[in-house]
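User: For a benchmark we're assembling, each entry needs the component sequences followed by a predicted structure for the full assembly. Here are entry 17's components. Please fill in the structure.
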Amino acid sequence: MDKTKVTIKNLNLFYKDFQALKNVTLDIPANKITALIGPSGCGKSTFLRTLNRMNDLYEGVRVEGTVRLDGRDIYSPDVDVVALRKKVGMVFQKPNPFPMSVYDNVAYGPRIHGVKNRRQLDEIVELSLRSAALWDEVKDRLFKSALGLSGGQQQRLCIARLLAVEPEVVLMDEPSSALDPISTMKIEELIQVLKHEYTIVIVTHNMQQAARVSDLAAYFLHGELVEWGPTEEIFTRPQDRRTEDYITGRFG
Amino acid sequence: MGPRSSFDKALKELQQDILRLGSLVEQAVYDSVQSFTRQDVAGAAQVIMSDELVDTLFLEIEDRCVKLLATQQPMARDLRVAVAGIKILLNLERMADYAVDIARATMCLSSQPLNVQPLAYIPEMARIIQKMIKDGLDAYVHYDVEKARAMCALDDDVDFIFARAFRELINCMKKDPESVTQGAYLLYVVRYLERIADHATNIGEALIYLVTGERKELN
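Assistant: Structure for entry 17:
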């Protein structure tokens, strides 16, 4: 029986007067990859950001409904948002390495959370870079600037950075859309390995990527969750006509 | 021009080509049975020669299905159309092969008049099978699930006649050793017809899968 990591119930989100999410209810299973798909502006990235309260950073945002992580409502007033974002990390479309060395990028999070011991930091940096399948490529240039890495390497560095603070959930907003096909494949292989340790939620425009990589797929349209289910079912026999139209490219 | 109009055009062409092959197979089965009951060796030879065209078309259309899968990455119903297309092609090709087998039986029995009693079952089976093939192809054109289901149900009738023919042929051969050669070939022929009906049922099942996504064994 699959364990649920995040339970979303009747989630509504408003950007001032505009309702971006309408009554979304979804269970995100633990140690699986859930893909959020849908056309531009459908609310999938907005939904992703509700899972670690990144939407709090936008002015005029109002959230109704519940998002429970391991049974606890993350919008409860007593929740430590910083701790939440450590537990639920995020990778963005455009790789955003800090303008510092590879080592310092990965050590940044642990240092902020109080790790000072040099040997401990070395271990964390190596483990995180290995987990992100980047260690072999950077082990001889750890103290050189991260900005000198290729796009694909920078993205894996961002993944290593977030793994260094030991998250439980990894959110990915189109993590490979800015990358070449080989880097994309490497990220996809990495995600498949990471899911054994983490729960992954990925937003992607790439239908084939969603089909290749995910265990569950959720289709959003105009802020509504139209349909969700096992990826194999969604991509071979979706129940809703709107889902069928989108994944067969006949949408619009 | 809607999105994916060239892909839609390719799918439509695929359907038409499968139907074209279906018609050839329908004709081959008909001709092979006619040739057998009339002991028409020339007709049988024609069935055997025409199979080459069926094989060529089969390979060509199957190749196009595979290329569609590779280049268009179809999903959902489109994917089922391509997969069902391949299944239907395979079953049509097997039916054509059985028509050739029936034609070969005609050639083998050409030197003697057919006088074994259960011969009468063959036109009876063939009539039902012709209807199954026609209805199966119609169902495919119109994505008609009910028609496909009704067609699959006819397979029971074919099986029933086959069982009777089989029993009577065995009895004939037991009673009259002279009839063994004919009897043996007739056994083959009714068996081939029974298999053709099974393949027609598979076509119906493939159509049902295409439309509904459900897989069901109906024979």
